[in-house]
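re the bet — no i am not wrong, look at it urself. input seq straight from the record:
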Amino acid sequence: MGCIVTVLLQNFINSKKCKKN
């Protein structure tokens, strides 16, 4: 849910956190 971000950069960083979670 929170992993999806409109910002590409933020999305990339979020993607890593999402995978870890």
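see?? Helices lie at 8-20. told u. also The two ends are 12 Å apart (CA to CA). so pay up
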